[in-house]
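Sample entry follows:

:::
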Amino acid sequence: MDGKDHNVEPNHLNPAVFDFDTVIVASFKDLEAVHSWWSSDQVFELMKHRSPLTKMSLHTVDGLVSGFEGTKKRAAMGDKLLLLEISKIESFRPMQRYVDMYKRLATKAHKDIGTVCNLLFAEGISGVLVNEFPVQAVCASCWRTRSDLLSWYEAPNYQQDLMPLRYDFARCFTVAVPMWEDRKGDSSENMKRRGSAAAGMKLRGLQV
């Protein structure tokens, strides 16, 4: 959506801040559940095989809604897209205003733009498990269609009130990603997935 230069390096003098190509969002009941999962033997074994990943970061953030399980019915009938904003903060107070305003505008989105904004979180990072990207604040919302997402992103409130704060006081990468994506791959990739099944079981019942 914006901030591509922070995802794809424009030149060797300006390295990308967020040069990743995969996103996973998972919800946990509380911080204790996060650390229970993170310290489990299954995740420990899985992390031994992270060598194909050039970089990775795992961060926690306080959510605004309860997690939900991914089901075929939800994938067919529910929200389809996640609008994700990831920021490296250059000035704290303006970006605190940003996330506070983001939440306030989201609550009245139905009145302002005629579409409900299902906001998952809009906050500074509360904890770090792996830190290989300078993630300091994140906002995420769910949308049924791309046109609904664009009605939020292109609304005057967003463009005139939120966008200037982001551009002036942070380096941000904003991307729309599918919430439900078909798994594709050859047999060797499937074998790797089966090898990490134990860790995946730890996430059953969570939004991933």
The CA atoms of residues 19 and 72 lie 31 Å apart.
